[in-house]
């Protein structure tokens, strides 16, 4: 497995987790770009250094600016920031026009990517059964900014597509929960619960690094579902 040169954009909890895990997974961190550091505040080809790929975990108002800067610098970028998806259609067009590469996901847990398919399949089966109602509950730590979470929105859309109607979401913000998503199908005399529970923030770092390795050598706009569908590590 060849070493990949990695730039980290945003050095919050996720950035620090990535910095610690990256060397164990065959990455060499060549740049750490953070808004709190004057010397490395903005994303440019110079601040990215010799990076083969970047991983971005910042805040919604900065994410699209950082993606555009990565595309301009010719650096593929994995985006873990959520809360900016209203701008995704226009940003997708810009990335494609610039022959860039972006993989964006509200959640980099491989388990969540599989869980989304499980939820869709369950909703497909329940769509033909009378008497069942659907509801999604998501729980995160109290500091999480967006509610509902991007993951909850993605899961609800997957279920809604199959059910033919919107699935309501309840958001809980409490303590230090990394992330729990529960899809409920409820009938008068029985209930089915499908749950994904993240036990450690490192699961997101692990998935983001997997996505970064996969993205090198590709052009286009991708999601974790694309990685699952075509798991070969590189198009090169």
Helix fraction by DSSP (H/I, runs of at least 4): 25-40%
Q: Biggest sheet, strands in spatial order?
A: 2-1-3-4-5-10
Name given to the CATH homologous superfamily of the largest domain: NAD(P)-binding Rossmann-like Domain
Sum up the overall morphology in one term. Answer: elongated
| Secondary structure tally, helices | 8
Kindly list the characteristics that best describe this protein.
Dihydrodipicolinate Reductase, domain 2; single chain; 2 domains; Rossmann fold; alpha/beta; 4-stranded mixed β-sheet; 236 residues; 6-stranded parallel β-sheet
Report on the architecture of this protein:
By secondary structure, the chain is an alpha/beta fold. It folds into 2 domains: 4-104 and 202-229, NAD(P)-binding Rossmann-like Domain (Rossmann fold, 3-Layer(aba) Sandwich), CATH 3.40.50; 110-198, 2-Layer Sandwich (Dihydrodipicolinate Reductase, domain 2). It is 37% helix and 25% strand. The strands form 2 sheets. Strands 2-1-3-4-5-10 form a 6-stranded parallel sheet, sandwiched between helices. A 4-stranded mixed sheet has the order 7-6-8-9, with helices on one face. Helix 1 (13-21) crosses helix 7 (202-215) and helix 5 (110-126) packs parallel to helix 6. The chain is elongated, with a radius of gyration of 18 Å. The model has no long low-confidence stretch (mean pLDDT 93).
């Amino acid at each position: 497995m060849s070493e990949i040169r990695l730039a980290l954009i945003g050095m919050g909890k996720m950035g620090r987790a990535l910095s610690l895990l990256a060397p164990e997974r065959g990455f060499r961190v060549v740049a750490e770009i953070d808004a709190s550091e004057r010397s490395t505040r903005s994303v440019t080809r110079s601040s990215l250094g010799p990076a083969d790929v970047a991983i971005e975990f910042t805040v919604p108002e900065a994410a699209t600016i950082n993606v555009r800067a990565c595309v301009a610098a010719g650096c593929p970028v994995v985006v873990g920031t959520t809360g900016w998806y209203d701008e995704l259609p226009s940003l997708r067009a810009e990335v494609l026009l610039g022959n860039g590469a972006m993989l964006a996901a509200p959640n980099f847990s491989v388990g969540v990517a599989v869980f989304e398919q499980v939820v869709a399949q369950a909703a497909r089966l329940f769509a033909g059964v009378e008497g069942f109602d659907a509801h999604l509950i998501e729980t995160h730590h109290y500091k999480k900014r967006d509610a509902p979470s991007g993951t909850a929105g993605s899961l609800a859309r997957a279920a809604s597509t199959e059910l033919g109607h919107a699935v309501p979401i309840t958001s809980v913000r409490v303590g230090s929960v990394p992330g729990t998503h529960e899809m409920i199908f409820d009938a008068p005399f029985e209930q089915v619960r499908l749950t994904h529970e993240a036990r450690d923030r490192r699961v997101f770092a692990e998935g983001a690094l997997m996505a970064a390795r996969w993205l090198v050598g590709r052009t286009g706009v991708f999601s974790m579902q694309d990685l699952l569908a075509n798991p070969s590590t590189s198009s090169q």
